[in-house]
Amino acid sequence: MKKKNINSIFTQTTKAKSLTVHADLFKKQTDFLNAQNLAAKNLTAQFFDVKNLGIKTRVILLGTIPGLVFAIILASYAVSHIFGVLNQSLQDRGRIIASQLSPAVEYGVISGNKQVLQKLVQGVLSAEDEVLTVMVVDNKGKVLALSGPQLPSALIVKIRQNNLTELNHSKGVIFTSPVFRSLVEIDDFVAISGEETKNNSLYKPAIGQIYIDLSKHASNDLKRNLLTKIALIGLIGLLFSLLLAWWIGRNITKPIQEIAYAVNKVGEGSFSQTITENSSGELKTLQRGFNSMATSLKQAYESMQDKVNDATKMLRYQTQHDDLTGLINRREFEARLERSLKSVHENNAQHVFCFLDLDQFKLVNDTCGHVAGDELLKQVSLLLDNRMRDRDTLARLGGDEFGLLLENCSLSDASQITNALLKIVRDYRFMYEDKIFNVGVSIGLVVINQGFESVSDIIHAADMACYSAKKAGRNQSFLFNAGDVEVTQRKTAVEAIADITDEIDDKQFVLYCQPILPLASVAPFTSALPFTPHIPEPQHFEVLIRKVGQDGKHMLPTTFIPSAERYHLMPNIDRWVIKQTFSTLRQLLNKSNEQCNVAFSINLSGTSLSDKSLLGYIREQFAIYAIPPQAICFEITETAAIVNLKNTINLFAALRKIGCTFALDDFGSGMSSFMYLKNFDVDYLKIDGSFVKEMDSNKIDHAMVRSIHSVAEAMNIKTVAEFVESEAILKELKNIGVHYGQGLFLGAPIPIKKLLENFSLLNS
């Protein structure tokens, strides 16, 4: 019976062998799988955080990551479940071996028959491959039987102290079970259950202890094989999923990549790019839509390119041509002139440059308005352009100035061309509304040679030649020659204004004044002493300006005024004169306790009359210096008044309300003097000195002075005769009845500072 029970123990333990595994190893493996699962989730999160993944990559990730996560979860569940079963089986097996061996060794422990006990434990060790050690001890701890390596005493002590039934160690698990004395005879031994044994132990004293050391080696091998197979299956499944996802992604993304490639090409400007419509469903719709879009873009691009080309041509044309006349503009003309000058220095070529300036443009522009002036420029440009050779360049340089570049042209041919242009313009009549104007042109010619270093030198030389042509009588040409007197004078005049800046001061200009005397009170000349008339009326002076030269000498206005007017410097000069005159009068008033009876006449240029801000400036100066407006008379030349007719009338009306007076200077020099005189509300008419200076010997001049005075008297206007330079002229003027006179015979110009210094003598 005892042998039968022992075989029963061996049979049950063998059945449980294939499912045994260690609980500690299971815990380590499950922790490893959980860590892998977490790593996979983190990797997935990183992938989906990347915003720049390609479509194919996203499809592959979409196809593989969920499967991978599912496989990991499934494998984790399977392993943990199987490992749990194996661990539980291992524990059950150890308990079964220990509990069934305990009653079998009861007899040997009671009898002390070590031979029987040794045979039993040796049989267990031989029957069970995974059993490392079987040891039986009595209740005093004495070893009665031992099969296998001796168990460490420390483990035995630990088991006893903690009353353990199981103990894990590095190589296996130690199971222990007590040996109790049974009330039943050995021959009638019947195995009782573990629960019954536990209950009976309360009544049965323990007579020994069994220790069984069960190896974890087989269990670990089984787990490793299981993990290897699971990993291999998962890897194969993942690889298959990757291949399948790659194939699906390729089929999906290839058309999309083709579309993306085509879109990039279109973005680079290749609008002829198309896609083969070889897909189906939505992708085919997308391909078809792209091809339609590409076709539309190509057509739109071609249309837009045509417009861009047209706009580019127009822009290029506008940058090279004048908007008003359609001729070459100044910038392009200077570029061509630069190339011509370069060819002269490099190839010894010969070219001629002509500077053209219309003679009557300002009269037309100011009389009829800017619209008429623009129309005149367009018509004259057309006249000139029709006579140009193909290789010549006609340009508008600005205002009424034109440039003509005659390339590879001799001086004789250039003279013929300019003479033809002079005749065309001379014969031309400009009609605007009910007015007809004769228009002339002055031309300055320059032969471009190696003596010129820059384009500005050429233009400057031609400008001086054109000025000489105007001074010689207008409507003619003049050839530049560096040694000519006219050119030298013109150059001197231009150089005289070169240092004029916006901030004019006493270092640049100085003021003079010349008396204007009432002729009725001038005593006859009876001695050789200087003429010093008694002046009972308020003393009147004309303010004159002088330019301070580099040598300190004072230059007459005729040397710099024309150039200053040409280069639009006169408005600043006029303002400086107004300010200095007002300041002088203020000083005189301060010295005389506001009792000064001096009046000043101030000349205004034609360009100042066109300045709409001049009136505000004059009012501002009156407010600053607090001088009586009745002490100021503004003089305007007849020509300037006629050219700026509307502005002059408005200025006269505004300043007259303040209390200022006005004089029309150089009257009689124009051809329409009497016709325009009725338009001006003036106080004084200054007879042009060209009629006065020879009136004592020239009957025509005498008649002109008499007629001008007669008309002025009829209009209740006082007359002033200029250039009174002799007693004979003075006598004739007094006979005619001219009211005032001005000239060297009556008093030479003196610096205005001397007037301040001699003020006490002046009022004695």
CATH class value of the largest domain: Alpha Beta
Number of domains: 3
CATH superfamily of the largest domain: EAL domain
- In which order are the strands of the major sheet placed? 13-14-16-17-18-19-20-21
- Secondary structure class reads alpha/beta
CATH architecture of the largest domain: Alpha-Beta Barrel
Number of helices: 27
Supply Rg. Answer: 63 Å
* Residue-averaged pLDDT: 79
Beta-strand percentage range: 15-25%
Q: Report the principal-axis shape.
A: elongated
Low-confidence stretches: 1-30, 185-202, 526-531
Distance between the termini: 174 Å
Q: Say how many strands there are.
A: 22
Q: What name does the CATH topology of the largest domain carry? A: TIM Barrel
Q: What does the main sheet amount to?
A: 8 strands, mixed, barrel
- The helical percent reads 40-55%
Task: Describe what you observe in this structure.
- There is one protein chain.
- This protein has 764 residues and is an alpha/beta fold.
- It folds into three domains: 2-221, PAS domain (Beta-Lactamase, 2-Layer Sandwich), CATH 3.30.450.20; 321-496, Alpha-Beta Plaits; 509-527 and 535-762, TIM Barrel.
- It is built from 27 helices and 22 strands.
- It has an eight-stranded mixed β-barrel with strand order 13-14-16-17-18-19-20-21.
- It is elongated.
- Mean pLDDT is 79; it is low at 1-30, 185-202 and 526-531.
Short characterization:
This protein is α/β, with parallel strands linked by helices. The longest helix is centred in the first third of the chain and has 51 residues, at 217-267.
Q: Which tags fit this structure?
A:
764 residues, alpha/beta, Beta-Lactamase, Alpha-Beta Plaits, TIM Barrel, eight-stranded mixed β-barrel, five-stranded antiparallel sheet, 27 helices, 22 strands, 16% strand
